[in-house]
Amino acid sequence: MKAAVIKEAAPGERRVALVPEAVRKLTTAGFEVLVESGAGARAWHDDDSYTAAGARIVTRAEALAQADAVLTVGKPDPAAVAGLHKEQVLIGMFAPLTDPDLVRELAGSGVTAVSMDLIPRTLPRAQTMDALSSQANIAGYKAVLIAAAAYGRFFPLLITAAGTARPAKLLVLGAGVAGLQAIGTARRLGAVVSGYDVRPETRTEVASLGATFIELKAVGAASGSGGYARELTAGERDAQQAELAGHIGQQDVVITTAQVPGRRPPLLVTARALAGMSPGSVIVDMGASPLGGNVEGSRPGETVVTENGVTVIGAGDLPSSMAAASSAMYARNISALLQYLVSDGALAVDLSDELQAGVVITRDGQVVHPGLAPAPDSSDGAAPAAARTAAPAEPELADSAGGNTRVDGPAH
Ligand code: NAD
After folding, report:
1. Mean pLDDT by 10 residues, the chain (412 residues)
2. What is the spatial distance between Cα 126 and Cα 252, in angstroms, rounded to a whole number?
3. pTM attached to this predicted model
4. Ligand 1 atom 44: the closest Cα is on which residue?
5. Residues 352, 96 contacting (CB under 8 angstroms)
6. 367 phi and psi, to 5 degrees?
7. CA separation (Å) from 312 to 70, 283, 293?
8. N or C: which end of the chain has fewer CB within 10 A?
């Protein structure tokens, strides 16, 4: 069984799907591992370190031609997809719910495509394969470091001969995997931390990290399915934004992490809330996306300073900015999934298995994931099966693989 790592296609991506330590474990488990020359360079792993771990360094063409399993972090480029074939499995994070064109291309290549970001995260046996969590953990940590670097004062209380510095007040909005890591990291740096989320079960998690949970009077619980939040109604959203603005105005630093699967990130920090913050305060928006973020006016990878002196940082690809750590964790995730898909040294894809059915998106030239295939009873293609079967996907976004993906979030 040959597994190949190819260089990442996305501009600026520094991560690599396998690190040498993972190569060593896979070769011990009986895999032959091929690594495209230079694939690990931006995560600080040179070709020699892979060779020492038991891998064979190859060209891109050799990797694609010889591998039974092709491993990536993100989406492959069209040239790589064109080099794939029916007997292979391709594993990576492909965001298929929002990229129907890629899903179509993958189906067209005949490859069995497996998208790590669709792993049913609540299955205990999927924990070691949960790349969304491993990468979100890193992102939450890095967001705090970015905030601390941009903030012109101290996070901890400092009592010195030159005066006393009060600790920074820091609020984390959204207390999922990234948010809880951000809270823990900010606490370790000495900030006075509070947290907020629409899922009431996060109250004890926030408190257990030594932070204060902010209760909003105007918004009730908004838990959705699978441990995720549901989208708020327009009325709830307006009330949330208005009440949060009062809390935000008291903070030195705000880190936003709120997401609703398959939806545009919710807007939590309005221009009015920004206007209420003090000069020198800092916001890191981890929800920043081309579709809009948690903070009004934020842009991914860009920093803006508002007229009243608030630095708004739209987080870019934070896991990629810590490529050595994120690649090591991702390599464990993808190795676990690869080994799960193999039996007696050969690929053994079984779509009757809940975990595999959750992640396999194309097979034998077809789109096979129920969240991506058109519903059998929908002749106009308007009601994708995703609406009923893919827990993390909201119906509006998880359109049929042949249709256009829509983002129907309300205008902010
Ligand atoms: P996520 O990235 O989808 O969202 C981040 C956070 O934003 C969530 O906590 C969500 O509740 C919050 N949020 C959404 N809309 C909001 C709004 N309008 N206002 C405030 N907060 C809002 O979530 P995630 O971090 O990937 O995972 C969330 C949860 O999923 C976890 O905390 C956990 O409960 C569950 N999960 C379970 C497992 C498991 O069972 N093994 C693994 C991973 C995640």
Report:
1. 97 97 98 98 98 98 97 96 95 93 96 96 95 98 98 98 97 98 98 97 97 94 87 95 98 96 90 98 95 93 96 95 98 98 94 96 95 56 35 34 28 29
2. 38
3. 0.90
4. 121
5. no
6. -85, 115
7. 39, 5, 11
8. C
